[in-house]
Amino acid sequence: MNDSSIFKEVKENIETLERHLTIIKTLLMEQPMGIIKMSQQTGIPEHKIRYSLRILEHGGIIEASREGAILTSDFIANRDKILADARANAQSMENIYKELKNILESP
User: Fold this and answer.
1) What is this structure's pTM?
2) Is 40 within 8 Å of 34 (Cβ atoms)?
3) Cis, bond preceding 107 (omega within 30 deg of 0)
4) What is the C-alpha to C-alpha distance for residues 49 and 7, in angstroms, rounded to an integer?
5) 53-87 confidence digits (pLDDT tens)
6) Which of 7, 17, 46, 73 sits between 20 and 30 A of 55, alpha carbons compared?
7) CA gap 8, 20 in Å, rounded
């Protein structure tokens, strides 16, 4: 599929979400952690780490500390809601796929 695909923006958002999840996973294993160390451990460029940390902080998932980023207690406490949101989004994408398949395979 080329860059003019109707899914271009969705694909970019999924890539960003995957990066956010990598950061969350990294912080679950070791926190606090700064941008440079996180970049070294994940292979994600520092500017992308910085962007993701801003988004995650705005969403209440992480917070800054003197030593680096840490996960918030709210994030840990709300894991069931987060998983339910992920499931709902996955179901929405599955429904979009089924609808598109029906449209494209119709005579």
Assistant:
1) 0.86
2) no
3) no
4) 24
5) 999 999 999 999 999 999 999 998 998 999 999 99
6) 7
7) 19
Amino acid code (one letter) for 19: R
Q: What is the DSSP string of 6-75?
A: TTHHHHHHHHHHHHHHHHHHHHHHS-SB-HHHHHHHH---HHHHHHHHHHHHHTTSEEEETTEEEE-HHH
Query: CA–CA separation, 36 vs 50, rounded Å?
Result: 10
Contact in structure between 33 and 27 (CB atoms under 8 Å): yes
**Residue 1 pLDDT exceeds 70:** no
User: How far is CA 68 from each of CA 35, 59, 62, 82, rounded to the nearest angstrom?
Assistant: 7, 17, 10, 23
The values of phi and psi at residue 69, to 5°, are: -75, 145
Phi-psi region of 60 (alpha: psi -120 to 50; beta: other; left: phi over 0): left
Cα(first)–Cα(last) distance of the chain, in Å? 23
Q: In the structure encoding, which two tokens stand for residue 1, read together?
A: 């599929």
